[in-house]
Amino acid sequence: QVQLVESGGGLVQAGGSLRLSCAASGRIFSINAMGWYRQAPGKQRELVATITSGHNTNYADSVKGRFTISRDNAKNTVYLQMNSLKLEDTGVYFCNLDGRAYGGAYAARDYWGQGTQVTVSS
Question: 87: number of CA atoms within 13 Å, CB side?
């Protein structure tokens, strides 16, 4: 079993900052990438940022220049530093891991955290 535990969500004012953390644990064999997705009420889940094991990053256009994703491979932990938060950043943020577990299938699969609420107020 691979588990993802998120922390750092909360309520912040527009223009403020928040840092999310996601620690992966369990029988992890390999990790191709980790990332963050978010889902606002009435909207589909969307990619926020991803980072590969080689520390290559990808960001949604809406967060470029404001959010920074980073990763500690040794701790299987991914972070999302969110600055200059906007009202539209409000949503449930989900941690994602693309990888393999010991005893799992040869092909990698996605694992998801339970989500953490981020609310940006005016």
Answer: 2
